[in-house]
Design brief:
Elements: H1 5-13, H2 17-23, E1 25-29, H3 31-37, E2 43-48, H4 50-55, E3 64-69, E4 85-89, H5 95-107, E5 112-115, H6 125-131, E6 139-142, H7 145-150, E7 158-167, E8 177-181, H8 190-193, E9 198-201, H9 217-233
Parallel strand pairs: 4-5, 4-8, 5-6, 7-8, 7-9
Antiparallel strand pairs: 1-3, 2-3
Helix pairs in contact: 5-6, 5-9
């Protein structure tokens, strides 16, 4: 059966958070991503071939488009296990960055990401595409990060990157803990900084060389996660 104008209109409306929230639906494109999501999310509609291209939200239209139902957010924020390494995102607004960080978390075996409401919506089509299916395996929790950290045991390390931080390559790192990554332009908010007890620095090379002001947040996340995992494998 050919796709109808109303179906195309509904799919394209899901580009907007307002309609995603109203319907509880989201869009994913590409066979690999859709196959990864199908065991974890309820499939509502699947379109293939020319019909899919008509409904695609991508600059280069995909020939496979699916509509899935969002998961129930549930109540409360799950506690962080003692030896678990997790990520927290503070107002990371770029959908590509959020999606890439979810993909990185999946690669490095990080199962939980905590985000505040200032972050991009995990069901934003650009986030979904950037995860390349990793959102099927990584759980995203929206919460008040300050409250979430305040409720954790006091001996849980909370890491963040700062210019005055200690060199990540020489500083002792723990197996578990929470790594906080800040906003693309402003870094970690002053309110959240008060809860960070382990300040790290990713040094440029060589020391003293004139360079850019900072790393992209997704790239910085990759460097940090890689170093944490390298210590375990040593």
């Amino acid at each position: 059966m050919a796709i109808t104008r109303n179906q195309i209109k509904q799919i394209k409306s899901l580009e907007l958070k307002k309609f995603r929230k109203e319907t509880g639906l989201f869009v994913a494109e590409g066979k690999k991503i859709i196959e990864d999501l199908m065991p974890h999310f309820e499939l509502v509609e699947l379109y293939e071939g020319d019909d899919a291209r008509k409904a695609s939200l991508l600059d280069t239209p995909s020939d496979t488009v699916a509509v899935f139902r969002q998961k129930n957010k549930g109540t409360g924020t799950p506690a962080l296990a003692t030896d678990e390494l997790a990520l927290a995102l503070d107002c990371v607004q770029n959908p590509g960055n959020v999606g890439t960080i979810i993909r990185l978390a999946d690669w490095f075996g990080i199962e939980n990401i905590y985000m505040n409401e200032g972050c991009a919506d995990v069901y934003n089509p650009k986030v979904v595409q950037a995860t390349m299916g990793s959102m099927a395996r990584v759980k995203v929790h929206y919460c008040d990060l300050c409250q979430m950290i305040a409720d954790m045991p006091g001996d849980v390390p909370v890491y963040g990157t700062f210019l005055e931080g200690k060199n990540i390559y020489s500083e002792e790192l723990t197996k578990g803990g929470l790594i906080v990554m800040g906003n693309e332009g402003h870094g970690i908010s002053s309110e959240l900084q008060k809860h960070i007890n382990k300040k790290l620095l990713i040094p440029n090379y060589p020391e003293g060389r004139e360079t850019g002001d900072s790393l992209n947040v997704a790239i910085a996340t990759a460097v940090i996660c890689s170093e944490f995992r390298r210590r375990i494998l040593k």
